Amino acid sequence: MKYCVLYPKTENVHLTKDVGMIAYKLNKLYGYDAFVATYKNGEYPYLQDEVKGLKLDFIKKEHGHFKDVYLYFKKNAIKIDVLQIFHMTLNSVVYAFIYKMFNKKGIVFLKLDCTKVLVDKIKKMNFAQRRILNAFLKRVDIIGVEKKEIFEALKIELKNHKTKLLNIPNGLDFDREEINAKAEFSNKENIILSVGRIGSPEKDSKILMDAFSKVDKGKLGSWKLVFVGPIEEDFKKEIEAYFKEHKELRERVIFKGPMYDRKALYDEYRKAKIFCLTSKFESVGIVLIEAGAMGDVIISTNVGIADEIINNNNGVVINVGDVSALTSAIDKLITIENLGLQASVTEKFCRENYDWNIIVKKLRDKIIEIKGNDINE
After folding, report:
1. pTM
2. Model confidence over 180-195: pLDDT tens digits?
3. CA–CA separation, 10 vs 32, rounded Å?
4. By the 8 A CB rule, do 351 and 174 touch?
5. In terms of Cα–Cα distance, which of 345, 344, 334 is closest to 276?
6. Rounded-to-integer distance, Cα 269 and Cα 191, Å
7. Would you give the end-to-end CA distance of the chain in angstroms?
8. What is the DSSP string of 280-324?
9. What are phi and psi of 50, to 5 degrees?
10. Residue 280 — pLDDT band, cuts 50, 70, 90?
11. What is the 8-class DSSP label of residue 342?
12. What is the C-alpha to C-alpha distance for residues 353 and 18, in angstroms, rounded to an integer?
């Protein structure tokens, strides 16, 4: 079974995300001849360790994007049993049409990686737009939807294609020791952790700093706020202004910078008791899964899969930009007695629902269902 993930923008960092992980797991678990088709965008050190065995097939960059892809498919499409593409965009439409032009029996797997915005756009489509959408989706055989709520909504909005829909979230590779190793809550420290691009407008890091400064100092005890990730240059002035205003927090609000060593990053998750995401939007929010699987209790804005993970009184979901609600959530979690119980609920849920082995098995079963007897693994 030849399985191609087409993502021309693939960089090293994408190999441990859905771009690389699905192909990697299909190869490792089921022996698929799975690879990522991409332009060469730098070096790929993860191929030596993180996703050892995953192959890249480099597209020649000669004539412009669409013609390059056309020539790639003209040569290779007939040998590709399953093509995985991403997002409901013009690029995906073109990819699907070209691939099916050269391989009518091939399977197209469209992984949406979308938010509620897509559902709203489909609802507002006029007759002509619907016809174009249906023409595209006729060439798609599997539609992967990461979030259950969006999956259910699309079963209504795409009723003519609902049998193609598959709830297939993103996940973690629990086969790796640094990810599979569980954290004992009794060994954790009084740390609130945030991971991402610090200071980027969509991450809204400042709201977390402001909320932390507003927490009742009598309750704060030894708690610290730790940021991990690259710091936007413009935001460094904001940090200095913050410390001038809150001198007492200079030793409590810590910026550790980016961590490219994934083992070191997971050690940060394991040390923390609380993880906080303040993003204005996320399609999935993989950091929520990482933090939850490491036994962190989560406070998050209502983005990505936050409301799926925090579904059993095991964390707090707040509205985007609500400093008061964030302050109250921190105040509540650092003082409650059952924080360890909440952590165990979150950890169990993440490990049972976001394991790449389980996720990829669902996809493989769907491929077998479509192929029937015409399958040669």
Report:
1. 0.91
2. 998 899 999 999 999 9
3. 20
4. yes
5. 334
6. 10
7. 5
8. S--SS-HHHHHHHHTT-EEEEES-TTHHHHS-SSSEEEE-TT-HH
9. -60, -40
10. very high
11. H
12. 15
